[in-house]
Amino acid sequence: MLVFLAGLLCFFALGRGYVAHGQDAKGTRFVCTSIPIGADPSCPLPPIPMQSTSPQEDDLRNTVMQLRETILQQKETIVNQRDTIKELTGKLTRCESASESTTLDAKHNQGSWRKDFSKTNGKDTMGDLPRDPIETIDHLSRTMQSLKDRLENLEQQQMRANMSGVAFPNELRDLLQRRLGDLENQLLNKVSELEDEKSILYNETAAHRHRTDTALNTLLERIHELEKGNSGFKSPEDFKVSLPLRTNYLYGRIKKSLPEMYAFTVCMWLKSSTTRGIGAPFSYGVPGQANEIVLIEWGDNPIELLINDKVAQLPLSVSDGRWHHICITWTTRDGFWEAYQDGEKLGSGENLAPWHPIKPGGVIILGQEQDTVGGRFDATQAFVGEMTQFNIWDRVLKAQDVMSMANCSSNMPGNVIPWVDNNVDVFGGATKWALEMCEDRLYDS
């Protein structure tokens, strides 16, 4: 009806245009526009807007079209297969009925029924069936199984078509979840095995560390016993320290330190094993001043006394391989010093670090000169030989006291540092041995 009305309006417009403008109709093209029923033909209609689509809508539309085509194809295939199944089912029914009649009269009508069935509905459809009914049934069973397989393939194709969407089938989702669960269990089992191996390895390592620590402690105790030497001294002061090699690791250390002092006396017995440069029999270092007190003979230089890194040369000579008694006194007043060897005063002087008090809290080392407090030794400055009766007083001893100690007529332990076994430690191979100084000196002389 709408088309008819549109045609009438177009005809009417053409007629009016021809009457009004009949002379100019040759170069003119007329356009017909359909209008709704009841609209005024003289009012122009607004143009129909073009609908614009986005790329996402186009993709969705294409996807829908593809899925629709796939479904139609699958539907057509299923219909064809269904018709085939119906046809084969009918044939199977006829074969079963024919087999029953054949069993009643198999000898007389053995081949006639095939001919009748083959010409059913005017066409030859069963000419390829086996002659034996049992073989026919087997053949049809195989055909049915083939059809079932084809149907399963179609279902799988349908499943793959459905998988093109976002959601997975429930069966596939369950399969993936079971597979992920199995992988997670395998991972947890592997982690548990690794944890067990780690625990076993840690226990073995701890046991090995314990055995190693025990062996080291035993060895250290043995070394400490060897370093202590013979502890069966007749008295705590009857021992000597032996430093047989010129190295930077053989030394002895006094456990006690010095207080602040304004005067001191240091006495000891020495037996050097070198003919020149006996090294440093002892040194005292404090933080900030490693050469607070040092007695040293280095190279061809004479024996020197250093106090606060100030130097005084002493007229002493002890490099003949015999025991010698050495005493040195010093006072901060005018820096006055004295040097004794074997009880005799061989020299004195002054202006050696005057008015400088000896700083407390340092370290006393036997046999090495300190470059830092308690360490950083130089092998060329090491003392090689033996020493004993190392004593320090915080005052200047009198000459007769020095002489009485040198000729073994008296024993005067130092009031600041006494020579006793439990106050001296040895390191690096230095040893302590029993010694009765006066008897050994008489034997030496």
UniProtKB/TrEMBL annotation:
Domain Pentraxin (PTX) per the UniProt entry, residue ranges: 237-438
SMART domains in alphabetical order: PTX (SM00159)
Pfam families: Pentaxin
Annotated region described as Disordered, given as residue ranges: 102-131
Keywords: Calcium, Coiled coil, Disulfide bond, Glycoprotein, Metal-binding, Signal
Translocase among keywords: no
Coiled coil residues, start to end: 137-204
Record carries keyword Glycoprotein: yes
Names of required cofactors: Ca(2+)
InterPro entries: ConA-like_dom_sf, Neuronal_Pentraxin_Related, Pentaxin_CS, PTX_dom
Signal peptide location: 1-17
Extent of Basic and acidic residues compositional bias: 105-131
Protein's name according to its UniProt entry: NPTX2 protein
Species, as recorded: Polyodon spathula (North American paddlefish)
Gene: Nptx2_1
